[in-house]
Amino acid sequence: MNTGTGRRDDERPRDGRDTAAPGRRPGDTEERRRELLEAADRVVLRDGPEASMNAIAAEAGITKPILYRHFGDKGGLYRALAQRHTDALLASLRDALDAPSDRRERVEATLDTYLAAVEARPQVYRFLMHPAEDDQQTESDQGFDVGRHSAPLLRRMGEELAEVIAERVDLDSGDRAAARAWGHGIVGMMYAAGDWWLRERPCPRADLVRNLTDLLWGRLATAGDRRDGPGF
After folding, report:
1. Which of 93, 123, 141, 214 has CA atoms 20 to 30 A from the CA of 185?
2. Is 37 part of a structural domain of the chain?
């Protein structure tokens, strides 16, 4: 039952402690976790990397210990949010790579998909990729220290793209090593260029996509498709 404050009766803290409702089903816990992540998303959209556990708990109508029960600590909540957004972005990138068009158009669509996501939710991007600027905040309510987490996110994206390249492009000898170099290199380029573009907005997104595609359009354009792959 909702008490009108956003806090459920079974999640009211007693004597400063968090308690779980007897007989709660696993599905209920997963649903509540999803609701808390959505509340965290709302705070991140508003505050970016300055989002705090206190603000997220308040948005969800619960106390901070309850938030810790679901995610362990700030790092656990950050990883859950990062997983949520990275999964969605990677699915969109794969859709762009699988579009029925020629190779250059698919490359352009993939770059545009990434940049469009950055442009549409810049605070989420900053939360995922940049630490809070104010390092003097108190421990109890400081922003997420996400700088140390952005590298694993980029590595995951690089490995995912490497898998796509290895499946689709014939790179002759050293296929796997070359595919990984390309995957991580392209992700690094997208990250660096997107970060610069989001900060300065020096040109329309379409111009940046075209310029980055031109940069990639060297050996990638001349490499043949793998005979046993779906084509790139």
Report:
1. 123
2. no
- At 13-46, the pLDDT tens digits run 433 344 444 455 656 788 999 999 999 999 999 9
- The tally of domains found in the chain comes to 1
- pTM score above 0.85: no
Give, in order, the Cα–Cα distances in Å from 49 to each of 45, 123, 145. 9, 7, 8
Residue 51, both tokens:
């989002």
135 falls within a domain = yes
Does residue 44 lie within any of the structural domains? no
**Buried-state track 190-199, b at ≥16 Cβ within 10 A, e below 16:** bbebbeebee
Q: Which amino acid is at 192?
A: A
Higher pLDDT, 22 or 118: 118
Is residue 185, in this structure, part of any structural domain at all? yes
pLDDT at 11: 44
Here the CATH number for the domain that contains residue 196 is 1.10.357.10
- Count CB atoms within 10 A of the CB of residue 202: 9
Residue 160 sits in which domain range?
74-222
Burial of 118 (0-12, 13-18, 19+ CB in 10 A): buried
- Say which DSSP state 169 is in: B
